[in-house]
Specification:
Strand content: 5-15%
Distance between the termini: 53 Å
Radius of gyration: 21 Å
Shape: elongated
Number of helices: 5
Low-confidence stretches: none
Largest sheet: 3 strands, antiparallel
């Protein structure tokens, strides 16, 4: 299950338009499809297709406020990506510590 969600999240994040939509929702809190489509040189149906990808990945939810259907960012899948990437961060931190130790040893081979 976690792998499927990660796949969907990374697939959604692979597109710059979808990342821009998420950035807008993170900054502004919520927006309608019309508001989200305004800065892009594409049709509202095209933006709606991007939103469907983001919704399938769990990154966006839509509410209802009268006639308005605002979209909101759901950050939970991004936390899962961050948790997944933390394993690789630890890997690189260990490598950098080993490199630091080697460089220290090369600068002072007698250890003093």
């Amino acid at each position: 299950m976690m792998t499927e969600r990660l796949d969907a999240t990374f697939a959604a994040l692979a597109d710059p338009t979808r990342r821009a939509i998420l950035a807008r929702l993170a900054r502004d809190g919520e927006a309608t499809v019309t508001e989200l489509a305004a800065p892009f040189a594409m049709s509202q149906p095209a933006v709606s297709k991007h939103l469907k990808v983001l919704e399938r990945a769990g990154l966006v939810t839509r509410g209802r406020n009268g006639r308005r259907r605002p979209c909101r960012l759901d950050p939970r899948p991004l936390q899962e990506v961050t948790d997944w990437l933390a394993e690789y961060r630890r890997f690189w931190e260990e490598r950098y510590r080993a490199l630091d130790a080697l460089l220290d040893e090369l600068q002072d081979p007698e250890g003093g």
